[in-house]
Design goal:
The protein is an alpha+beta fold. It has 14 helices and 11 strands.
């Protein structure tokens, strides 16, 4: 009769030893041999009349190994089902510990497996978290910038003869040179598009009145503000952290001059921006656009608060892992085997993912958070509505229900929607546990925070 023993071999790492006697597997081996003798096609013998001795000689070792392993696995998984240890992944056979199998000499065998146990832990107390809700006030200037951007996006490009407006779009050829404009052999040569107002005031003044094929010489560091020079360094293939790069000189030759003829603020333009919303006046247009901008920045503020919540829970929730087990699992558990060095390098990111999975699973379970079929359908209905925007979908929307029913049959789409909704509920719960202080920031400041942390 099989026996099972379990012992601890490391942090959250146990060994399970399965011992089986020949009585546990030998009857199944003999039965399988007889089945083979009835079904095997061997030249010189009629089907079903192959001697069992010949079957053992030809197939015995493989049948024997299969039945021993099958018996061991059956005992192992029966034990796991009964004891129900909370483990990562699947048990792994311990290295270099598999016994040698000899079907001619049935005997007792012992197989060793190791398991990695999930840690018991308590969530960091959210009520003690010191968090900040960064809020952006939509100013008249921000509103006007957005309107201007829309007017330019929907406008028509013209080609004036000379540079005469800070909104001119210049197609230029940058040729690396010395301070006198002489091209440097092997230097950077690249064509790019730049809006005139991106240049420094001095260079803008120098370019005013210039025409196609005219040239000026400039130094990067003296021709762009700090927030623009990094963009130019990147466009020119230079390292923004290289202090010498910004000291380079370039000969700028105008290839083409453009200017966007902005769209007029009229009912036709308003209807394109907000189709079906009955926006007929500039006043109504500005009010609706301001409302959308406020909603956008409120959403960004919440996202950034959620990022703080994520970091607080990750940083302040202590948790151990069976590192040795998991690193070995990383080597063998994926589609492609990894070296010990690759597993070691991947482990920090992998363990972070595991930690967040355990934290989020605990929050969902402890607070009975769930996503219902109605939640999924409502989300998909919103998704379809966003696709159509404010356009009328007609009076008869019976087609929408059948369309959503088809979406509900797409397992991948349902899974993606579920994950998004359960994450929203998780962070909604966490947000309700904290009382962040509010701080007003600019849109650029909040965007910078979002770029630095994105999970």
């Amino acid at each position: 009769m099989a026996t099972i023993a379990r012992e601890n071999i490391g942090v959250l790492n146990d060994k399970i030893t399965i011992r089986i006697a020949k009585e546990d597997y030998l009857p199944a081996f003999e039965k399988k041999v007889k089945e083979y003798s009835k079904t095997a096609n061997i030249p010189g013998f009629r089907k079903g009349m192959v001697p069992t001795g010949l079957v053992k000689k030809m197939y015995g070792p493989s049948i024997y190994a299969d039945e021993v392993i099958r018996t061991v696995e059956k005992e192992l998984y029966a034990y796991l089902q009964q004891e129900n240890p909370d483990i990562f992944a699947q048990p792994m056979a311990m290295e270099n510990q598999a016994p040698k199998l000899d079907f001619a000499n049935p005997t007792e065998y012992a197989f060793d497996f190791e398991i990695g146990l999930k840690p018991a832990f308590e969530l960091a107390p959210l009520k003690k978290a010191t968090l900040t809700l960064y809020k952006v006030k939509v100013t008249d200037e921000m509103l006007q910038e957005e309107i201007t951007r829309m007017q330019i996006k929907g406008g028509k490009m013209t080609e004036p003869e000379e540079v005469n407006n800070e909104e001119n779009v210049l197609n230029v050829l940058f040729t690396e040179s010395d301070k006198d404009g002489n091209a440097i052999e092997g230097g950077i040569v690249k064509e790019n598009s730049v809006i005139l107002k991106y240049f420094s005031a001095a260079l803008q003044k120098q370019l005013m009145g210039k025409k196609k094929d005219d040239s000026v010489v400039f130094q990067l560091s003296k021709s762009f503000e700090k927030d623009k020079i990094e963009m130019m360094l990147h466009d020119l293939g230079l390292d923004k952290d290289d202090k010498e790069a910004a000291k380079k000189y370039f000969n700028l030759t105008i290839v083409k001059i453009g200017l966007v003829d902005k769209r007029e603020l009229n009912p036709e333009f308003f209807a394109e921006v907000f189709p079906g919303a009955d926006v007929a006046t500039e006043e109504t247009f500005r009010a609706k656009l301001r409302e959308e901008l406020e909603q956008y920045w409120a959403s960004q503020s919440r996202n950034q608060l959620h990022d703080q919540l994520y970091h607080y829970l990750m940083d302040e929730t202590p948790m151990e892992f069976p590192a040795t087990f998991l690193k070995r699992w990383l080597q063998t558990g994926g589609e492609k085997p990894k070296t010990a060095e690759e597993a070691e390098a991947e482990f920090p990111f992998f363990s972070n993912q595991l930690k967040w999975t355990l934290i989020s699973d605990k929050i969902v379970k402890d607070n009975s958070l769930n996503v219902t079929q109605d939640d999924l359908k409502a989300s998909m209905r919103e998704e379809v509505s966003r696709y159509f925007g404010n356009m009328s979908m007609g009076e008869d929307t019976s087609w929408l229900d059948s369309y959503i029913d088809r979406m509900m049959k797409d397992e991948k789409h349902v899974d993606t929607t579920y994950r998004r909704l359960i994450t929203d509920k998780l962070f909604g719960w966490a947000e309700a546990q904290v009382a962040p202080k509010e701080k007003e920031v600019t849109g650029e400041e909040l965007t910078g925070m979002m770029h630095n942390h994105n999970h």
